[in-house]
Amino acid sequence: MMMTDKVLSKEKIGEFVDGLSGRYTVVAPVRRNGSPAEFRDVTAQDSIVIDGSAALMPPKDYLLPRYEKLMRVDTRDGQVQIEAPVPEAVPRVMLGAWLPDVKALDVLDKVFLDDKFKDPYYAARRENTVTVAVVPLKPRWSWFCTSVDDVTEWKSKADVLSYDLGDAIYFEPITERGAAILDGAALADPTDGQVAAKEGVWKAFAEVPHCAFAGKDLYENLCWDSPIWDDIAQRCVSCGVCTYVCPSCSCFDVQDEVCGSNCIERYRCRDTCQFEDFTLMGAGHNPREQKVPRARQRLMHKFKYQREQFGITACTGCGRCVEMCPVNIDIRDALCTVCSSEIETTAGTT
Amino acid sequence: MSEETTTLEKTTDEFVEKRERQPVVLAILCNWCSYAGADLAGSSRLHYPENVRIVRVPCSGRVDPMFVLKGFQKGFDGVMVLGCHPGDCHYAKGNYYARRRIAMVKDLLTTLGIAEDRFHFEWVSASEGNRFAELINEFTAKLAELGPFGGVAGNG
Amino acid sequence: MDDVQSRIREEARKVLESGQVSLVLGWGKGSTPFKTTPVFIEKPEDVDRLVWNPACVNNLSVYLPKLTKDKKVAVVAKPCDIRSLITLMQERQVSRDNVYIIGLGCGGVVDVFNLDEQDFHIQDVTGLDWDSGKLKVTAGSSEYVLDCSTCLRDMCLICTKRSPAIFDVELGEAVLPEELCAGQSVLPDIPEERRRYWSEQFSRCIRCYACRQVCPSCYCTTCFADRIEPKWTAKKATADEAWMFHATRAMHLAGRCIACGECERACPVDIPIAELQREMNKITSERYKYDAGNSEQDKPLFGQFEDEDFDPAHHSEK
User: Fold this and answer.
1) ipTM for the complex shown
2) Are C176 and B126 spatial neighbours (Cβ–Cβ below 8 Å)?
3) What is the bridge-based pairing of β-strands A160-164 and A129-135?
4) Chain C residue with minimal CA distance to B151?
């Protein structure tokens, strides 16, 4: 399989999707009513956003659905019947995932594709999905990817790396199975100008100026008694939006519900450490009833505990929490503060 | 990508599933007037459709708007709340509070696009066995005309 | 609004220095020029952190019940924030004696999602200000003067109560919207279409509860949505469960919502939650001549009744 770069003119996106639909289920971001785009199964007729230009809910919403049926137990006619569906391992192509989102899948893989226990639901989708990461024409104002990791290493995280050239999308295959999706008639070979433009798009992304906390040892600096927790907790309204829009947050709840007189359904749904009742235990004890422990948990889990566990930083700088927090608690400011003795704002660094 | 199933599939009783599809009604009746009225209809052997699920509350003032909303969410084709006539409440004022609250629920349902005819609110006293049977018949007939409730969400 | 901003800071300094209050709650510079963040000022030397500009969106009354439990605080408040505060006082969550209200006349505040869809790039924005009934945005080296309808929070477009209802000190001027939209409903007329409209909106709900958490009127220690016995609404993010949550919340806020629009602004998936409340408010206003947040002396709407109340009961034809 030749690993050649290809270019797709934006008017031919439908044709491209059509070409893939025979062999794969195509998954791409779709906007509805001006709200952030969401990943759905799409056809050539759908209007999709694969250049990274729109606000986007993370791919985890597709790979780990917000509501997933795990089991159904029926006891009709005196018999106990258990249905435990596992999604089929159908081949999928996921277009238009932001590059920091694809990198965040590494974190989800560590949690759900562990050696000791592999989550069959996540695995069925993840392992059979060819990922096409996108670097948009202009990095989003809230992105701070370059401050949390060496982004050049991220080039190998997707099966295909794509770049928005404005009127076209540039595809760069990274893996064999990535190259396999780029054989359609809708695609053309890149011109020299397009290759240069692609390099420019990458450069703009890779050279986003660092925040003040970049390069500092977050691992060492994040400590239990930092005054930053009080500052965050005071303003935080415990809404949970930050964790819901985060591409690497994966906490879930499992609930059993009665669904008729003879059956129960077990399902998995989202949960968040930011809810007051997240650590509420059966006997009534709640170690994180106050906001300070919850604020602390969020940052330390993301930047310290998961590094201890998995050896990688769980935050990929996608900036959604920064954009969506209703009270403008900016994770970048918080990290700057723990690494220095004064509060430094990041206004003007992006 | 979220998988939607009509909750009606999950919560309709076996009994109803086996029979021909008929409107299922949730009726919330206050103990002292409307429930007694329903009782009277029963002991008078007045006929009314049996797909009415009655929930007895001490007073219409106890009716939390959530009961009505939950009824629709669970897939009942129609919901009704019946209470004592104003001035006749066993607890003196309960039904006056209910009047304001239920009026608001009605408007909320209209705002949400639930057909007005699916929610019924009326004052029925303990001696109005006839009226009770009559209104159940009317309500069920109306619901049969409207067709099964498609659920609060989804394209049913 | 530089002048008002300096006066806010002066007032804050005054009440802190005199010991009248132990904390001033207001808005401070955000992490970007088009956002602000709530600030809790305890020392007079910190008052310069307070700002006043069209990015001051937060309804700060949401913090007051907990803050005023054991101390007196000053709050820098827009007229809508004050109406929330009045509702909280009606419901005995905040005592008037524990709040010093720095009331502001308002010209409306921005919605960042709307700002993001203009001709300039949002990351180039360096300043926001009101300008004679319009909005002035400085982006890069250019200045844009925008109609308020393009980027203000939706609720601000129909707000007519732009002066503080109660206050200890009043600063700034109310600027009424240029076009008073009568708050026409955007809902489809036909019930079935309306049902589908809401079904589509609620199908996006992720049950993050941002709408609930930013609302000052939602202060229940345990929300009905978090109860498991009885389980009024399941945690799963399906459209029908979201419907149950939002419909019930709409009922719980009937007669108590002051229509600030924070719920809509905080929603990460752009559900028009406040639209539901706006319809409810129209009805309570017309039918019972009652507006939430008018006066501390008002009794809660559904905690009272009149003998001649509108009777929604079906009247059978005999």
Assistant:
1) 0.91
2) no
3) parallel
4) C240
